[in-house]
């Protein structure tokens, strides 16, 4: 069941489609050393306060991310602006398609760039000339800022150090074709096909390998995995507890498991980092303004607000993902910065070209609803 906050009630459509789900201190402004600078800063602050004071009403946010990663950010915006935020957590990008004749949302937050770019190609998102947008590299935002990614992650394998060593864990996506990995202690774990991370993973493989080989890969992991879970959080906990030797997850779930008081003797292998390999599959979480939303001015204000560096870090929040803005330190000391990894040579917006057909391929391969 989808979860609403702030006593928010919206019509939830029975889509019968795949569900999509799916800090460090920033440096504050320096104190002025002379009167002129102080006056200027005061005037700028007055302007900011006046703009904030002019905001009222509400903002409707659909989010495909885990509520615990998003709600604190929305509460912060509400506290600082006075705008009432009403949030639908667990939203599917396809819900916006179904509602396009009666737009309900002002802002969509996604854990998958493929979903965002798909909505953009459908003409359901609206761009803007946001002041701090250039703090995010062009490859991580749409041409006219219809969507902007703020945090990123890479795919790889979390493993239980008490059960296997690093060299007993796959080092590439291609390794999972081999059924030998079914023989590791207690087997390995993956998410169901409808998980947003898995959709992005499969889309990236389609880009790299084509559809036929990718479907064979999906069928191989469907057959060989010992556990198929609803989400990556379930996998990290299961691997940490020794229920499975390793699991295919995004790297920030490894960061999260290290923070647990127990079951935290885990390691992580970034996939496809060897010479001649395709590089780690990347995806990102981002924000977008929904075209024709009921509270357009507040949506613009939110987009401007979330691009402030303090709020970019707040967007990362408890997820322990890695900020895309290279000027920001990752909020987790063991995190590997995006500049230190070898990534697949695929522009993230390409995920949008594959999104819809990937869901069909996953359904055809029988991975969509299987849990075990």
Structure, explained:
The longest helix is centred in the first third of the chain and has 20 residues. The chain is of the alpha/beta class and 372 residues long. The chain has eleven helices and twelve strands. 35% of the residues lie in helices and 17% in strands. α2 runs antiparallel to α10 and α7 crosses α8.
Provide a concise account of the structure shown.
This protein has helices spanning 35-54, 67-81, 93-98, 113-121, 196-209, 211-224, 232-240, 251-258, 296-306, 309-316, 350-364, and strands spanning 3-4, 58-63, 84-89, 107-110, 125-126, 147-160, 188-191, 227-229, 246-250, 266-270, 282-290, 322-323. By secondary structure, it is α/β, with parallel strands linked by helices.
Top keywords for this entry?
372 residues, alpha/beta, D-Maltodextrin-Binding Protein, domain 2, 11 helices, globular, disordered N terminus
CATH domain class of the largest domain: Alpha Beta
Average pLDDT figure: 84
The end-to-end span amounts to 20 Å
Rg result = 21 Å
Uncertain parts: 1-53
Q: Which sequence of SSEs, written as H and E, runs from N to C? A: EHEHEHEHEEEHHEHEHEEHHEH
| Number of E-type strands | 12
Helix and strand topology:
Layout lengths: L2 E2 L30 H20 L3 E6 L3 H15 L2 E6 L3 H6 L8 E4 L2 H9 L3 E2 L20 E14 L27 E4 L4 H14 L1 H14 L2 E3 L2 H9 L5 E5 H8 L7 E5 L11 E9 L5 H11 L2 H8 L5 E2 L26 H15 L8
Parallel strand pairs: 2-3, 2-4, 7-8, 7-9
Antiparallel strand pairs: 1-3, 4-11, 5-11, 6-9, 6-10, 6-11, 6-12
């Amino acid at each position: 069941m989808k979860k609403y906050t702030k006593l928010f009630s919206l019509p939830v459509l029975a889509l019968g489609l795949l569900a999509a789900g799916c800090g460090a201190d920033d440096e504050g402004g320096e104190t002025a050393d002379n009167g002129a600078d102080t006056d200027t800063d005061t005037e700028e602050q007055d302007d900011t306060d006046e703009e904030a004071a002019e905001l009222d009403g509400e903002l409707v946010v659909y989010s495909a991310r885990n509520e615990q990663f998003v709600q604190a950010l929305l509460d912060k915006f509400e506290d600082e602006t006075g705008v009432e935020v009403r949030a639908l957590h667990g939203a599917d990008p396809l819900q916006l398609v179904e509602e396009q004749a009666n737009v309900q949302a002002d802002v969509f937050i996604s854990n998958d760039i493929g979903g965002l770019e798909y909505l953009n190609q459908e003409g359901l998102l609206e761009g803007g000339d946001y002041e701090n947008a250039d703090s995010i590299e062009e490859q991580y935002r749409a041409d006219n800022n219809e969507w902007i990614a703020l945090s990123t992650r890479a795919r790889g394998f979390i493993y239980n150090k008490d059960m296997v060593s690093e060299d007993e864990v796959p080092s590439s996506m291609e390794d999972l074709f081999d059924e030998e990995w079914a023989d590791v202690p207690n087997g390995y774990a993956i998410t169901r096909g409808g998980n947003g991370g898995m959709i992005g993973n499969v889309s990236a493989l389609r880009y790299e390998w084509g559809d036929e080989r990718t479907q064979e890969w999906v069928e191989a992991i469907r057959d060989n995995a010992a556990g198929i879970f609803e989400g990556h959080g379930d996998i990290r906990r299961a691997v940490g507890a020794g229920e499975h030797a390793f699991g295919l997850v995004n790297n920030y779930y490894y960061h999260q498991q290290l923070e647990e008081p127990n079951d935290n003797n885990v390691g992580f292998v970034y996939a496809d980092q060897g010479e001649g390999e395709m590089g780690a599959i990347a995806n990102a979480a981002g924000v977008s303004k929904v075209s024709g939303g009921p509270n357009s001015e507040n949506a613009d204000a939110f987009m401007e607000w979330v691009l402030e560096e303090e709020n970019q870090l707040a967007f990362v929040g408890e997820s322990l993902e890695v900020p895309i803005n290279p000027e920001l330190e990752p909020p987790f000391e063991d995190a590997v910065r995006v500049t230190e990894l070898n990534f697949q040579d695929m522009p993230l917006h390409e995920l949008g070209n594959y999104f819809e057909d990937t869901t069909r391929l996953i359904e055809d391969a029988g991975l969509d609803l299987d849990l075990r």
